[in-house]
Amino acid sequence: MVAKVIWDTIIYWAVPGLLFFHDKLRRLxxxxxxxxxxxxxxxxxxxxxxxxxxxxxxxxxxxxxxFADPYSLLDWIVDxxxxxxxxxxxxxxxxxFTKNVILLEQLAxxxxxxxxxxxxxxxxxxxxxxxxxxxxxxxxVVARFREYxxxxxxxxxxxxxxxEPAAVAS
Length: 170
Description:
By secondary structure, this protein is mostly helical. Helices cover 70% and strands 0% of the residues. It has nine helices and no strands. It has helices at 2-14, 16-21, 32-58, 70-73, 75-83, 90-122, 126-134, 136-149, 157-160. The longest helix is centred in the middle third of the chain and has 33 residues, at 90-122. The protein is globular, with a radius of gyration of 17 Å. 26% of the residues are buried. Residues 164-170 have low confidence and may be disordered.
């Protein structure tokens, strides 16, 4: 659940919030680049939401009582939040929007990679893992994650926080 809430927050701050506060939504037709980024984000967000439902269907661990404060957990989320009201001129806005889409792709790839690695290690849902590994869009974002992880490493705690580890015998 924590991963979904954080994903929903960052997608909002990275795309519609950024475009709304910069008065770009009503002017998308003037910018093929921004419109293309919006289309890419829509496809990505739709697939991530489906992925989250699929993950829940095969791995429904009980939630822990961990409080997830995205501001202290994730440095870059503060940048997304502040970026909504940055007052960027159009060219800088388009550049920032493109950077945000790349970040979203990296995060989606990190989500997929982390979940697949976790389920594989636990021997859970190998058929579902195979379907994810065969999914073209998911593999694109996994490649983006691997490409950018080297230059922009991101802590995966946003994905795993809130998961209750298996009970440990005392």
